[in-house]
Amino acid sequence: MKAQGMPMWLLLACGLLCAPALVASQDLPPEVAPDRPSLTNSTQTVPVGALQIELVLEYAPSSLADSPSERRLAMQATLRAGLTDRLEVRLDSEPLVWLRQAQDHTGLGDVALGMKYRFFDPPEGGWWPSLGIEPTINLPVGNMPIGSGQTDFGVRLLASEDLPWQVSLDVNAGLVAVGQV
Question: Please, are residues 158 and 172 in contact by the beta-carbon 8 Å criterion?
């Protein structure tokens, strides 16, 4: 389907990319802290009953010795829902992926289900960071070579510390089992 010479998926992608600018113009609660897909996550969860959508556009070129170069442009989306003040559930996906190799591939990427649980908050004035855990399972819904084609699961340990001048330090360490049954 095309609208005035432009593919419908491109119009949808542009609309989704503009949505965060509209939401950002509203006053958001200060306790909401975004997590970026593929980057370090904090121990902070979304408020109870809140539903938060995060969108990212990622471009990743890669080149290996004798292989043809690869370019990947992906829209990543994260849906987070707060169940308690320490627990949230998450749905991570890549609703649109364009992979340029020897042949171009366009389609849906894999989907991951997960949760984040903050199990330790330091006492006021304490020097320990807050600690959390984030288990995930990756469901292979994307077609090869865009998707992995296999179920992956993992767990990440999260540590967050608030520093002076509204700066925070977030450290993650994880273990992932790729392509396990």
Answer: yes
Q: Is the Cβ–Cβ distance between 134 and 158 less than 8 Å?
A: yes
pTM score: 0.73
- Domain borders along the chain are 2-177
Query: What letter does residue 28 receive in the DSSP assignment?
Result: P
Query: Tens digit of pLDDT for each residue in 44-85?
Result: 999 999 999 988 898 888 877 777 788 888 999 999 999 999
At 45, list the tokens.
């969860």
Q: Which helix (H) or strand (E) holds 18?
A: helix 8-24
Contacts of 130 (CB under 8 A, 6+ apart): 43, 118, 120, 121, 122, 159, 160, 161
pLDDT at 92: 92
- Separation between Cα atoms, residue 138 and residue 67, nearest integer Å: 27
- Asked which of 25-34, 134-143, 157-166 is least confident by mean pLDDT, the reply is 25-34
Give Cα separations from 179 to 121, 137, 153 (angstroms).
Answer: 34, 11, 8
Helix (H, G, I), strand (E, B) or coil at 60: strand
